[in-house]
Specification:
The complex is a heterodimer of chains A (494) and B (370).
Chain A lengths: L8 H5 L1 H11 L4 E2 L2 H4 L16 E3 L4 H14 L3 E4 L16 E4 L6 E5 L4 E4 L5 H9 L3 E2 L12 H7 L6 H4 L2 H4 E7 L5 E5 L10 H5 L8 E8 L1 E2 L3 E9 L2 H13 L6 E6 H11 L8 E9 L1 H17 L2 E6 L3 H12 L1 H6 L4 E4 L9 H15 L2 E7 L7 E5 L6 H18 L18 H4 L2 H14 L39
Parallel strand pairs in A: 2-4, 3-4
Antiparallel strand pairs in A: 1-2, 5-6, 6-10, 7-11, 8-9, 8-10, 12-14, 12-15, 13-14, 13-17, 16-18, 17-18
Helix pairs in contact in A: 10-12, 10-15, 15-16
Chain B lengths: L2 E3 L3 H14 L3 E4 L15 E4 L6 E5 L4 E5 L4 H9 L3 E2 L20 H6 L7 H4 L2 H4 E7 L5 E5 L11 H5 L9 E7 L1 E2 L3 E7 L4 H12 L7 E5 L2 E8 L4 H11 L5 E3 L3 H9 L10 E5 L5 H8 L3 E5 L4 E5 L4 H7 L3 E6 L12 H14 L15
Parallel strand pairs in B: 1-3, 2-3
Antiparallel strand pairs in B: 4-5, 5-9, 6-10, 7-8, 7-9, 11-13, 11-14, 12-13, 12-16, 15-17, 15-18, 16-17
The chains are: A alpha+beta (494), B alpha+beta (370).
Amino acid sequence: MIALPEPDPEILSRGGEIVAALKRLVPDGVVSEPAGLAAYDGDALAAYRQTPLVCVLPKSKEEVSAVLAFAHEMGVPIVPRGAGTSLSGGALPRADGILLGFGRMNRILELDLENRCVVAEPGVTNAAITRAAEGHGFYYAPDPSSQIACTIGGNIAENSGGLHCLKYGLTTHNLLGVEFALPDGERVRFGGKAPGGDGLDLLGAITGSEGLLGVVVEATVRILPKPPVTRTLLAAFHSVPDTGQCVANIIAAGIVPAAMEFMDRRCIEAVEMYCAPGYPKSEAILIIEIDGLAAEVAQGVTQVSEIARGSGAHEVCEAADEAERARFWKGRKAAFSAMGRLAPDMLCMDGTIPRRALPAVLARMAEMAEEYSLGFCNVFHAGDGNLHPLIIFDVMTPGELERAEAFGAEILRLCVGVGGVLTGEHGVGVEKRDLMPEMFSDADLAQQQRLKCAFDAGGLLNPGKVFPTLSACIEQGHAHVKRGAMRHAELPRF
Amino acid sequence: MATFRVSSEADVVEVVRGARESRRTLEIVGHGTKRGFGRLVECDDVLDLSGLSGIVSYEPDEMIMTARAGTPVAEIEAALAEHNQRLGFEPADWGPLFGTPAKSATIGGVISANCDGSAAIRYGRCRDHLLGFRAVNGFGEAYKGGGKVVKNVTGFDLPKLFCGAMGTLGPLTEVTLRAFPRAPIAAVFRIPDLSMERGLALLRRVWSSPLESPSLAFHASTALIRLESFQAAIDEKIAMLRNLSEPEPQRIDDDADSVFRRIASGQMVESEGLLWRIHLPPANAAALIGDIQPNSWCADWAGGLLWLASDGDAHAIAVTLNSRAIVVRGDSSIPPFAPEDRVRAQLTKRVKAAFDPLQLFNPGRIWEGV
């Protein structure tokens, strides 16, 4: 269990005063009663809960600035929150911090079809952007599984991906510009309706910065023309390594499917019990979606089918109609819920590996599951090598959470060991914070922390996330990090 | 002035530590093809990365390549072409604009100057291709940013910052890039005799269609459109293009890449004086051209990128149309990059200082103090 912080008693003692001041800044948007705050005590990293000191729900960018300026002056930590769907604890509150919620800043400000973009407030949901554009034949491509709830501001903070980022990219590839509030409340614009050309790519730097650098108060995103044809294949295999090899072969053939999703036998069994999508009996399946113009898609479908059979698939079938396509996807989209029914608690890992390493990594993970004797399944975005091993456990059984976390950490070490990364789309947050040194050296981390300091010298934005040690922003970085020696041992860590 | 010609990351670290101790500034160069781009910097010494060259690893199956920063782009593109792959942003070759030989740019230089080509509108810009890097900061420490896989959100996205940083954040020593499959068929079409308004509107119409066209340019009353697909599917795209275009599109035999390479390299604009590159919302292109009245111009990226020759101050006009202008080639009369507002300028300086607190690297190349 990753240690949560001891709240600063000095800030707690000023709680009443802080709440009163915030009520003056955002008169109708302060939640400070225990019953109200209970709704804000965490995100989708469900094992971690913390009630915030107070929650503020601004309605305008001016109110956001006012809250930030106040917190900056008072030295109170701020935790930004969209819809609280982070799987890594990005929106986990602090007992001594203000939770800055964007749920009321939920207006689409402009639909600009000529320039193929949508301008939105940060609390607009991902799905609402597509809804605003789809009547005109456009959609917003990044589609995290939480898209009906998650917000565009949160997507930008986490650089969210989704099922279709193999072809269409992550949030960062679909974001044109933001208005961004810095920790002192000052606002600045990066990008616009056209990307690029404005000096250092600060838009790129803030995307995926997990609320550590500032908060998005307005976003401009690219919308894409909806592809006229989408065809969906299901390939079933008797062997997991064959399935991994099939993925590698498709990528190597130069085909870029819109989505390519993997589910193993344990996951298939769980979803069959849960919603009976009727998948063929197999060790693993791939759901492969190809979109574009009709002839191009037809060619892709033919090629992918041949590769799948050549890689050992015992069954390759195509969804005959929209209903069957929905059935193929139903099981995949229900995977988390289905696994969640098998045990009270679940950890969802998120490492990315080079695609050629898939067969070996899948085999090693199966061995590890035996060693840790925990329920486990694999469901993931195979096309870009982004694994989502799901580990199920019961937090009430002594030692199981620790074992699950240790298993998860070992999986991520394995990912890094084969040349991959700790997180492909969920973010580091609290969950993978202490694993950062597995991937980054002291010098690598120090450089990232210097960027943090350039934006947030006071360290008030989402403190305790992403970096395993708190950094005090010492001018010019003269504090040298010595291997093994913890920086600033006097500072609280969590 | 000394020139330090390095051949390893350790060499770079040593040079930077020396510069740090003696407080001497370093001009970072590859093959020096774009030294005329950006503000004039007068540095104490030169850090020449052209010897830090060579492909470190290339796995065609992964479509990922790692190369040392001084590797010639031509070498990288040749290696990718052997496996029918390419860099989706089609690095533009700006060397000839500055009187240096064509095809001699290094990958580090192209990244640092954001030399995005025509196909960036379809496959993403340079910043969307740089997955990870190694570099040396102003503390004399070698470090890495990003990763070597296509999907990664671990830690801050430092690679983005290095694209277009003009070397001001320190020398890159190694870069990891994603590649894309080369389409089996590329066909180029021209639609001549169009007014500016009609031509630009046609580009936007195609851009908003599902054709996924990788190049949408306009030059000398002619729209230039590239389509890509499989052999079996290209006819479908051509038919769709014909439906979108009122004058009949004419297929041209030009090597599909080369016309768009010329456009992206600024060579279609006749300019003795200031040569501008303007990022803009595509629908504002006609208004911007009307306001600037350039001597010569061409549009790329469906109108979202303009190259033009104008001796006036296009910065001032560009901002009125949500656009951002850069002087690619000019003199010292007009700053190459538009000034930032107060808050952003302060932030930029802090970001610069986070990598280079002593202002050792290309100081002032983008703005004064950056």
